[in-house]
Amino acid sequence: MLELGTPKISRSAFTDRSATILGDVTIGDGVYVAPNSSIRADEAG
After folding, report:
1. 6, 9, 28, 35: which is deepest, by most CB within 10 A?
2. Tally of domains in the chain
3. pTM of the model
């Protein structure tokens, strides 16, 4: 089974409700995640 990890999202980042953020990713200060976007870290490395 693939372990995905947990996203780390800064309190100052904006993430739209329709965006998908999956896996061990970091969204830093002031980052804008647009509507319907997908940020993924679900591929085994």
Report:
1. 9
2. 1
3. 0.80
